[in-house]
Amino acid sequence: MNEDGSDLVQITESPGFEGYPVWSPDGTKLAFQSVVAGESEVITLDPETGETVNLTHTPGFEDVPSWSPDGSQLAFYRVGEDWEIFRVDADGANQVNLTNHPALDAFPSWSPLGPIAFYSNRDGDWEIYVMEPDGSNVRRLTHSPGFDAYPSFSRDGSKILFHSHRLSGEEGGGDIFIMDADGSNQRPLIVSPGEDSDPCWCSASDRFVFSSDRDGDYEIFIVNIDGSGLTQLTHNTVSDIEPDCWEPGH
Ligand SMILES: [Ca+2]
Ligand SMILES: [Ca+2]
Ligand SMILES: [Ca+2]
Ligand SMILES: [Ca+2]
What we know:
Elements: E1 19-23, E2 30-36, E3 39-45, E4 52-54, E5 61-67, E6 73-79, E7 83-89, E8 96-97, E9 105-110, E10 116-120, E11 127-131, E12 139-140, E13 148-153, E14 159-164, E15 175-180, E16 187-190, E17 196-201, E18 207-212, E19 219-224, E20 231-232
Antiparallel strand pairs: 1-2, 2-3, 3-4, 5-6, 6-7, 7-8, 9-10, 10-11, 11-12, 13-14, 14-15, 15-16, 17-18, 18-19, 19-20
One calcium ion (CA) binds next to strand 7.
């Protein structure tokens, strides 16, 4: 799909649900959630060759892959009795549980500078955290009552986009916020009465995509990092969610 919403191409053809596509840093592979033999897995696809690699192979539900800066590993999270964040080599080997905590830990976003952001309810409320790629040195970044979730690192690693209900309350439609990578300077960026969610930084510019149900069903939007230039990319009556932004020439 081009940035103006034209040229929508279906890349994957599988009977299972396909979710949360993300391109590798060099743009050669796509990672996403898919159903393989009745089980939800995270897989990678080389669109040139059609080759796929199943990274998970478990009865659990895995989703939200995020590539390491050099493309050699991915993080994802697994929903089971507990939710945990794992790291795995891009060939599916050496799966490591990074969070290993009785609370719910979800939605990894791997910074180009190294750390991995995620959200968790380990302190009794939903907050955003970062940790090193080996799971050490967990730091809490948000301290706000209500749902704080879905972190997405900027392409230079200096900032984190995230979803928060701190303005809307638990029943209202949450909004999109931005903060510095150390948790400072938290401020609202996209605020509407609808649910504004799933922010995802574009790979090659200071823009990001997000989903919003401000018109009654979910559509995908793209916007400059200062909140200007808001453009709606999808126009239909079905739900368009979990956007990833791929810009040609990167
Ligand atoms: Ca699975
Ligand atoms: Ca956990
Ligand atoms: Ca919170
Ligand atoms: Ca909102």
